[in-house]
Write a structure and sequence with these properties.
The chain has twelve helices and twelve strands. By secondary structure, the protein is an alpha/beta fold. Helix 6 packs across helix 9 (250-259). The two termini are 39 Å apart.
Length: 354
Amino acid sequence: MTESKPQPYHLCIVLLTGLGDVVHGLPLVNAIRDANPWVRITWIAEPMPAELLANHPSVERIVVYHRRDGLRGVRRLWSDLHALQPVDVTLNLNVYLKSVWPTALSRGRRRIGFDRSRSFEGVWLAANEHLPPRSWAHTADMFLEFASYMNVPPEEPEWRITFTPAERKEQSAFFRKPGEVPVATIVPASASPKKDWIPERWAQVADSLEKEFGFRVVLAGGPGTREQAIAREIVERSSASIEWAMGDSVRRLAWIVAGSGLLIAPDTGPVHIARATGVPVIGIYGHTNPWRVGPWRAYEDLWIDHYTPDAAPPDPSNRKPMWNRMETIEAGEVIEKIRIAVSRYDAARRIFRG
C-alpha cells in the first residue's frame, strides 16, 4: 500500500455494528488514509452506527446495510455496491455470519479477515486472506492488527469524530443553557439487560453528582422502551434536577458525550465515544470483561470491575459472560470513582465553552 507512486485504490471496510466497535475502527481507517492520502475508503455499516460516520474526514462513502430487511436488504446492498468503483481490498472486521454478504458483495480482489480461530459461523470462508492467528484481545487492538498487516500501524491512534457547524451550534446552545456548570452525563442502559445496572443505585449516583460534586446531571441514551423505562425510574427516584436527553439521534448523543466533563455508563457504545473525544469515563462492568471491551488504554483507575476475580490478572482474551455480577456493584463504589475523576482528571472543571 505504500508504493512510491500513488495508484488509484479503493478500500472497503466491513464493520457493521455496534456503535462502540465502529468507534474502535476509526484509528484503523485514519492510519490507512494518513499513509495513503489517495485511497478511497468505503465503509459498510448498519443504519444506527452509520450515523456516527457521517462527515468523517477519512471515509469517502458510507454504504448502509439494512440487514433486518432480510433478502430485500441484501439486494439493496448488492445494488449500492455495484454502483461503486471496483474495490481493490476489503477488510472484514466482523467475526459473525452477518458480515458474509457485505464481504462477498464488495467484490474486493483481496478480502482480508480474521483467522479461523477468531471467526464464527464460517465467516473466515468469505475472506481469501487472513490475519495471523493470535489470542483474543481488546477489540481496538484486534482491529489495529489490520493496520499492521497493511503496513500502516499508527504511531498515535486518532478517532477524528467530526461534527458539522450546525451540530456545533446546537451543542453550544445545549451546554450554555444553565451557565458555566460542569456536566456529568449518565447513559443508564446498554443494548442488553444483562449489562445494565440498578435504577435505584443510579439515582443515588445522580444525587451525589449534583449535591456533592456540583455537576449538572444529564440522562442520555437511545429511544428503546427498556432504556426509557430505566431512565424514567432514575428520575422518579432521584432528588437531583436531572435533564432528560434520551432520544433516537446518535449524532446528538455523540456531541452530548463529547461536551461533557464526565460520562458514567455500563458496557455501551457511548463509553467509547467518550474515550475517543477525551472525556473521562467511569465504566461499570460485571457481565462483560472491561479489559476486552472497556475504554481502550485509558481511565483504568475509573473502571468498576466486578468481572475479574479478586487477585486475578487482567485477561483480555476472556470472552465468557459473568452472570449476576452487575447487581453486586454498590452506588458507593461509583461515587468513589467520581471523586477520583474530579481529583485526577479535573472532571468538575471541564466546562464546555464551545
